[in-house]
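TASK: fixed-backbone design
INPUT:
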């Protein structure tokens, strides 16, 4: 017996989980709906169902840039939820700082690059190790 969920069931679960966030419901519905569109937007994960496997694909300029085959619905929900939350947070930060993808994004990127080139933050092997150890501690504790 297969435990495969339909796309509508996946969408319902995603929306239920996203209700626990502070993101506006309409925005979350748009993000969930785009996961199942026939047009393949760049950087958006799409779900296809095989016989007993979900196939999560991300396209970039019309080509598959990432493909994951997973058997458990929870894994699919994890990958889709991760993408939705990341995208919503990123867009929120861009809006908060007045950055858009058409006019100011390149200027913003140039300013970040200038900071990096001036030595604003140059990671040493120690700082990278400390970051890694901190992440490991968080993962071990949770």
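OUTPUT:
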């Amino acid at each position: 017996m297969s435990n495969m969920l339909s796309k509508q069931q996946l969408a319902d679960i995603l929306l239920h989980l996203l209700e626990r966030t502070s993101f506006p419901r309409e925005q979350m519905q748009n993000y969930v709906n785009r996961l199942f569109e026939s047009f393949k937007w760049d950087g958006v994960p799409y779900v296809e169902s095989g016989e007993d496997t979900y196939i999560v694909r991300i396209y970039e300029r019309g080509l598959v840039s990432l493909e994951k085959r997973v058997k458990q619905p929870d894994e699919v929900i994890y990958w889709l939820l991760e993408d939705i939350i990341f995208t919503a947070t990123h867009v929120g930060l861009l809006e908060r700082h007045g950055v858009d993808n058409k006019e100011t994004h390149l200027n913003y990127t140039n300013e970040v690059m200038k900071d990096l080139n001036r030595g604003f933050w140059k990671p040493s092997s120690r700082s990278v190790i400390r970051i890694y150890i901190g992440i490991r501690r968080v993962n071990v504790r949770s």
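COMMENT: Residues 73-96 form the longest helix (24 residues).
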